[in-house]
Amino acid sequence: MPNQAARSGMISLVFPMFDEEQNVGPLLASALALAPRLADAFEIIVVDDGSRDGSAAVVERQRRLDPRVRLLRHPTNVGYGAALRSGLRAARGDLVFFTDADLQFDLREIESLLAHARDFDIVAGYRARRRDPWRRRVLAFGWAALVRALFGLRVRDIDCAFKVFRRPVLDALPIESIGAFVNTELLLRARGEGFRIREVPVTHHPRFAGRAKGATPRVIGRALVELATLYRELRAAAESPPAAWQQLERGIRERMGS
Questions:
Q1: Which of 34, 93, 142, 144 has the fewest CB atoms found within 10 Å of its own CB?
Q2: pTM summary value
Q3: Predicted confidence band at 256 (pLDDT cuts at 50, 70, 90)?
Q4: How many CB atoms lie within 10 A of CB 140?
């Protein structure tokens, strides 16, 4: 069962979505059945990232029946990171959870994450057994190795889309990525700010409906560009003196008349 930190506050459940007409109805039914067990108050936020099918219409019908369901819409497909950012920024909960709308995770396992939400700032799921096609597993292995080499970030499953954040984390972290790099960016920035991260195993299911969009050349290329951008940013920040030292140096120079 979730701990009191979850029970006594409000939780936001955020679902980025792109062309998930067959999946989003069952997802919302599952979320609405589960959420009252998680917290005294809840909201469900679905971010439609320019879907071309009837996904948004499914959510809109449910929104009319239950005002705790919110639908945010991007007029065109911007990217997974942009959709997630819209949802996280709109969330009002003390705790904010997100996962994908493709039904590859069991929402009931949110309770396993919430059991640690009092003691950790981010509780991140990792797929105990990843059920993606072999090509995606190979790409994921290479991506994790690259991130470890560049940033020294050692987590079991960098891109697992099954996470809970405490409110102060989202208030503190900028989110710049608009593509698939967003999960990695969130963990890297959180580590840099000293937030505590706990990993919890979760079940992963094969996709039964819809089409995966995360392994196309366009998505991979954008992720590599965003990775390089953050690497330069963090490296420049590490090499430049802190603002307090810069201010002190200016003060000394002014006193010396230089």
A1: 142
A2: 0.86
A3: low
A4: 19
Instruction: State in Å, rounded, how far the first CA of the chain is from the last one.
Output: 64
pLDDT in tens, 42-56: 999 999 999 999 999
Range of the domain at 237: 4-256
DSSP for 132-200, written as a single string: S-HHHHHHHHHHHHHHHHHH----S-TT-SEEEEEHHHHHH------STTHHHHHHHHHHHTT--EEEE
Please give the Cα distance from 34 to 138 (Å, whole number).
Answer: 34
What's the pLDDT score for residue 214?
62
Kindly provide the b/e burial profile for residues 221-231, where b requires at least 16 CB atoms within 10 angstroms of the residue's own CB.
Answer: ebbeebbeebe
CATH of residue 24: 3.90.550.10
pLDDT digits (tens, 9 = 90+) for 74-113: 999 999 999 999 999 999 999 999 999 999 999 999 999 9
Q: Is 47 helix (H, G, I), strand (E, B) or coil?
A: strand
**Whole-number average pLDDT of the chain:** 89
Q: Tell me phi and psi for residue 202, to 5 degrees.
A: -135, 160
Tokens 């006193």 correspond to: 255
Q: What is the domain count for the chain? A: 1
- Locate 239 and state its tokens: 């090499």
Is 118:5 a contact under the CB 8 Å cutoff? yes
Which two structure tokens, joined as six digits, stand for 73? Answer: 């819409």
